[in-house]
Amino acid sequence: xxxxxxLFPDKFLLDGTVSDSGIGALEIAVNNLNxxxxxxxxxxxxxxxxxxxxxxxxxxxxxxxxxxxxxTRTVGKFTVLPSEPTGTLGYFISGxxxxxxxxxxxxxxxxxxxxxxDTITSLGAKIEPHLHYAVANSSYGYVFGTASAGKSWRLxxxxxxxxxxxxxxxxxxxxxxxLKNVSRGYACAGSHxxxxxxxxxxxxxxGEVCVSIGSILQSRNANSGFGNKFNGxxxxxxxxxTGTNQTSDIEKFSYASESKTxxxxxxxxxxxxxxxxxxxxTLATYLMTGSTYSSFPTPGVSPARYHYTNVIDKFTFTGETxxxxxxxxxxxxxxxxxxxxATRCVIxxxxxxxxxxxxxxxxxxxxxEMSSITFATETNTLLGCVLSxxxxxxxxLDNASF
Length: 402
Hints:
Largest sheet: 4 strands, antiparallel
Strand order of the largest sheet: 7-6-3-30
CATH class of the largest domain: Mainly Beta
Oligomer: single chain
Number of strands: 30
Mean pLDDT: 74
Helix content: under 10%
Structural class: mainly beta
Shape: globular
Low-confidence stretches: 1-30, 56-73, 77-85
CATH superfamily of the largest domain: Kelch-type beta propeller
C-alpha cells in the first residue's frame, strides 16, 4: 500500500430571516411545493426554448443556432435565461493517474455528465491538475488551487470554454474544502509543500474577486464541504500529512455572519478525502466514503491500517444530525468527484481497490466508475457510463441552482 499523499442555494426556500438551527416543518412543506413548481416551470420553459431554437433553425438555414438568439423569458416567478436549465450538466475536471506507482501522471481533461441521458462526453477543454476547490452558479463554474502558482479558472457552461482569471488563494494551496451559496464561494483550509492551513478565502461571483477572511476552527486538509442556502459545513480531514490523524468533527460556517462554530454532530467514521455534493439537496446531503485508519479488514481483530472506507453518512440540515446509511458503496474509495441536481447525486473517479472491499486490499487503481445516489430512496446505483479516463484527486462542479 503506498503512503497516502498530501490529503485533499437554494433560491426556493422561504425568503426572509431563518435561524441557524434549521428550517421548520412549514418551511419544509413550502420548500417542497416550490421545488415541484420550479420543476414544472423549467420543463415548460425548456420546451418553449427548444421550440424557439427549432424555429430559428428553420428560418435561418445556413446560420448557426445560438442560445443567445432567444430572449429571456419569465415563467411565473422564474426568469429563464437562454441557456441550459439548471441541474442538467456536471463536469469532472483534471486529476491524477498512476498514483499506485507513485508516478502521478497529470490528467488534464474535462468530462461532461448529462443527467437526462446518464452519458459522459469528453471535452477538448483542458486545464492543469491540483484544482481542488470548485464552486459554481447556474452560468459559470470556478476552480482554484494548484501546486504551482495558485491559479484559478472560469468555465462558461454555455460555451464549455475555460479562461484563466486573476483571483488567487492566499496562501496558495490545494486539497481543501469548497462551500458556496447563491452569490459567493469559499475555499477552506488545505495544504501545500508539507504545510497544513486553516485559511478561508471568499470568492464573490459578481466581480470574480477573492479575499482572505480568516480561518476555520481547526487547520486541516483533505476535508470536505457542503451546505444549504444559509450555512456551510466543513467535515473530516487530517491535521497533518500522516494517515492516522483523521477527524470526525464538523464545523458550521454561517454565510450571513461568516462566523464558525463547532456542532455536536460527528461523522460515523473519522475520515478524510470524502466526497460530497456542495449544495446537497434542500433538506440533507450525503458524505461519501473516504480514507481512514482503523482495524481492517476485520474490525477489532485485524491490525490498524490505513484504508478506504465504503460508508455513506447522511447529514440532515434540520437538527444538524449525521448518521450512517445502510446503503454503502461496493468498494472503498477516496478523492473522487460529485455533481448533482434536485433529485440525485452522481459520483465519479477516485482511488479504489482492485479487489473486494472485505479483502486485504493490496492493490489500488484510479477508477473511472460512476454511481448515482437517489435522494428519495437513499440507494446507490452503478451507472453504465464511465469517465473517459480513470483518475483521482479531481474537481467536480455542476450548473445546479435551486
